[in-house]
Amino acid sequence: MMRNYFVTGGAGFIGSNFIQKLLACDSDISVINYDSLTYAGNLDNLISIASDPRYSFIQGDIRNIDHLNEVFSRQNVDAVIHFAAESHVDRSIENPSDFVLTNVVGTCNLLNVCLAYWRKLSGIEKDNFRFLHISTDEVFGSLTPNDPPFSEDTAYSPNSPYAASKAASDHLVRSYFTTYRLPVIISNCSNNYGPYQFPEKLIPLIILNAIEGLPLPLYGDGMQIRDWLYVEDHCEVLLSILEKGQPGQSYNIGGNNQPTNLEITRQVCRILDELMPNSQVRPHEQLITFIKDRPGHDRRYAMDTTKIYNELSWIPKHELSEGLEKTVRWYLDNTEWVEKIKDRPSYNDWIKLNYKGRGKA
Hints:
Number of strands: 11
CATH architecture of the largest domain: 3-Layer(aba) Sandwich
Number of domains: 2
Mean pLDDT: 96
Shape: globular
CATH topology of the largest domain: Rossmann fold
Strand content: 5-15%
Number of helices: 13
Structural class: alpha/beta
Largest sheet: 7 strands, parallel
Helix content: 40-55%
């Protein structure tokens, strides 16, 4: 029997990878992609499945509850996978209100619409309905060098407007299970990387700047530590969570690594040195430029993935070196996608706003 999945933010980086994975692995699933197509939303990410009869796109904004209600009134939905969010820390520092409106108010709207829809279901359809909320490790704050990794029981301590807005949305989602028994599940993932990522984030920004021989900007001393998760691995485990995760629970997802931002940048440079032997800026590492740090920059993230391993038998398939090489190759092989992104005012204006005025560290 066909199952119908409603995916918010499906034209974004992780959402588009998830939709492609979903349709590739199960012929009995249809997908409704609900996306407002902000600067980071890109239907070019989904060209490969755009003509698939199991896929449909609706342009809409989760901040508009009337439109959400209208859409749900004419759809059969078995699961909601909620990716839609403003997601860039630097942009949240410039304009926190957008993050509150989308990540908090928008999530509340979606929860209310789903609650009303779910209450009208009965039997196995009601029992099997799921609301999967995709969140971040940034809600937990920052770790010192000797702190244990974040677990599902770690207290929330967000340090940026982005992290605070995601923490608020997590609390809302959890409350709808406790108060209304809406079958929600929360996943908190580490830094994703891979194909189709908008190049405001570290890895694609480094790749594209290095290709052009531009400075590779690193905040502060570049010694901030992150856990990196290849997006394909993330999408695979989200399918497992939908199938076997327990309502009311949260699951930490990570790549089981802790490199510094400087180390990540050097690895990308070495890969480019190998793949671009005729580049005039080899070694690309010479382009690294340390710039003034951003306010409230978390020093270290690390994820304890014991729970998701014990309950769902999941570990990431990609080692960091393998995932980075696949990512670099993808950006080198998809120049048309890259050039369209670089032609967008939303990209160029942001690069100028965020980097041009920053002095060196």
